[in-house]
């Protein structure tokens, strides 16, 4: 069966770990959206891998990794990952396919991301500065875009880059007083990227359909989380792709009906990096405790993550728009030691109570959480593999969340390692 793993909160739910676990039973793992803004952690024994563009199946020998058309590819980051994996004895080049239609993130995208955020000052989005927004903007704008297929004809690419760099330099100078970027430097980098990556560039839509026809099992790896979705998240405090499950079809050319199961990832609490409304945020000692116990620091930027209680209003919205079949809840172990826990079951907005998540940022900023309070538990859960062996209050917590979000919780994480999970049903 083909499966899709997708974040239901604001990212960093533990997708890397769950994809790595499920990749054991998959032939192909596909990244279909986002770019090097993602940071997916996979821990195998004592080894820790932080993957940004590479599908998390990369660490499983024999798995084919596909970077589909919906991803914005920063070749510098990708080559860094390829070389980093090679140094650790993992050959990926021979089993990596990159869509010819995937758009390319170049230096001027990263420069623009930073210049724009600096200019926004207090109103900044808090992006990862990886050039994601500017690259997707060029994709929609069409006239100044570079795709992986453009690496096939370097003369044509030179002409195209000349036009693009002239345009970008004019705009950056006029708006931000920025120093001009050099065409020759950007072009030489592209030549290097083309030399190294052209062997992987292909029609991945065709590859995926032919593979599925041949009975191969495909695992689709979401990036970011549904609440960061460009259309359905907390705009403008979102990323620039459809990071919910809805991004799958456009991101790789495979319709949702060919995916047997959508698995939504959550943490047992909530986190968010960057700016934007976060109703259940605990900007206090509780949030600090969760951050320290859960090592809640960004995998990509190292920024401290904002932490808060589990928000069932937000997650049931993400599950609903994504057609989520099952939920995997990570980090249950992190909550041990708290005397009592709160779960947000509804919002009060201007005196009215609602259980439907308003993604409008100003409406959400006005939302006040209505909580259910449950007892906490003590002790280390990381050795537990059977749901029935969990402390009664930990079980009750999972069941309370399940009841509120109305989707079965089939997997519970009790530690960062591959083995530290409880399968339920
Ligand atoms: P992703 O972006 O969704 O892949 O998540 P990240 O890798 O950015 O962040 C998740 C973090 O939680 C990583 O450091 C993981 O190693 C860690 N992690 C995943 N599952 C668990 C779990 O069940 N318990 C604990 N304590 N850590 C976990
Ligand atoms: P993974 O895949 C958490 C956030 C940024 C910022 C907003 C826009 O590891 O879950 P961008 O650079 O995309 O323009 O930033 O989105 N963001 C993430 N937060 N995890 C991620 O990815 C994220 N990718 C982007 O912090 O608030
Ligand atoms: Mg992450």
Kindly describe this structure:
There is one protein chain. With 425 residues, the protein is α/β, with parallel strands linked by helices. The chain folds into 2 domains: 3-90 and 204-423, Adenylosuccinate Synthetase, Chain A, domain 3; 103-199, Adenylosuccinate Synthetase, subunit A, domain 2 (Orthogonal Bundle), CATH 1.10.300.10. 33% of the residues lie in helices and 20% in strands. It has helices at residues 15-23, 75-87, 107-120, 132-141, 154-176, 183-197, 204-213, 247-252, 285-293, 312-322, 361-365, 392-405, and strands spanning 3-7, 28-31, 40-44, 47-51, 64-67, 72-73, 96-99, 103-104, 201-202, 218-221, 261-267, 270-272, 306-308, 310-311, 326-330, 340-349, 352-354, 368-375, 409-413, 421-423. The strands form 5 sheets. A 10-stranded mixed sheet has the order 9-7-5-2-10-1-11-15-19-20, with helices on both faces. The longest helix is centred in the middle third of the chain and has 23 residues, at 154-176. The protein is globular, with a radius of gyration of 21 Å. The two termini are 16 Å apart. Bound molecules: guanosine-5'-diphosphate, 6-O-phosphoryl inosine monophosphate (IMO) and magnesium ion.
Portion in helices: 25-40%
Q: Which whole number gives the mean pLDDT?
A: 97
End-to-end separation in angstroms reads 16 Å
The CATH topology of the largest domain: Adenylosuccinate Synthetase, Chain A, domain 3
Total of domains = 2
Multimeric state: single chain
User: Ligands in the structure?
Assistant: guanosine-5'-diphosphate, 6-O-phosphoryl inosine monophosphate, magnesium ion
What's the helix count?
12
- Biggest beta sheet attributes: 10 strands, mixed
Pairing-aware structural class of the strands and helices?
A: alpha/beta
Query: What would you report as the Rg, rounded to the nearest angstrom?
Result: 21 Å
Strand order in space, largest sheet: 9-7-5-2-10-1-11-15-19-20
Poorly predicted tracts of residues: none
**Overall form:** globular
CATH architecture of the largest domain: Alpha-Beta Complex
């Amino acid at each position: 069966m083909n499966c899709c793993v997708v974040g239901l909160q604001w990212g960093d739910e533990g997708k890397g770990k769950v994809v790595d676990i499920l990749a054991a039973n998959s032939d192909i793992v596909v990244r279909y959206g986002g770019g090097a803004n993602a940071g997916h952690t996979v821990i195998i024994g004592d080894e820790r891998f932080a993957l940004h563009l590479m599908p998390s199946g990369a660490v499983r020998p024999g798995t084919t990794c596909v970077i589909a058309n919906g991803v914005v590819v920063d070749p510098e980051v990708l080559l860094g990952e390829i070389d980093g994996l090679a140094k650790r004895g993992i050959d990926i080049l021979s089993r990596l396919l990159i869509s010819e239609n995937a758009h390319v993130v170049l230096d001027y995208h990263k420069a623009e991301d930073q210049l724009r955020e600096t200019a926004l000052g207090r109103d900044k989005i808090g992006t990862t500065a990886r050039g994601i927004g500017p690259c997707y903007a060029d994709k929609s704008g069409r006239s100044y875009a570079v795709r992986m297929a453009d690496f096939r004809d370097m003369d044509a690419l030179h002409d195209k880059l000349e036009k693009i760099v002239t345009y970008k330099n004019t705009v950056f100078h006029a708006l931000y007083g920025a120093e001009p970027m050099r065409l020759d430097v950007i072009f030489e980098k592209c030549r290097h990227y083309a030399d190294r990556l052209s062997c992987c560039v292909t029609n991945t839509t065709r590859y995926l359909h032919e593979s599925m026809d041949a009975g191969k099992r495909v695992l689709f790896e979401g990036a970011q989380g549904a609440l960061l979705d460009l259309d359905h998240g907390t705009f403008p405090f979102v990323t620039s792709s459809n990071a919910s499950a809805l991004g799958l079809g456009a991101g790789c050319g495979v319709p949702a009906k060919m995916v047997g199961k959508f698995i939504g990832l959550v943490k047992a609490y909530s986190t968010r990096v960057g700016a934007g409304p976060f109703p259940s945020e605990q900007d206090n000692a509780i949030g600090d405790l969760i951050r320290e116990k859960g090592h809640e620091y960004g995998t990509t930027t190292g920024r401290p993550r904002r932490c808060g209680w589990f928000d069932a209003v937000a997650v049931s919205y993400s599950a609903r728009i994504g057609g989520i079949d099952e939920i995997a809840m990570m980090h249950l172990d992190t909550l041990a030691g708290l005397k009592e826990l709160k779960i947000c079951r509804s919002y009060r907005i201007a005196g009215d109570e609602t259980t439907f998540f308003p993604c409008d940022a100003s409406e959400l900023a006005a939302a006040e959480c209505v909580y259910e309070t449950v007892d906490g538990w003590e002790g280390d859960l990381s050795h537990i593999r059977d749901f029935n062996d969990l402390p009664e209050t930990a079980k009750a917590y999972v069941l309370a969340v399940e009841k509120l979000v109305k989707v079965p919780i089939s997997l519970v994480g009790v530690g960062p390692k591959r083995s530290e999970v409880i399968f339920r049903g």
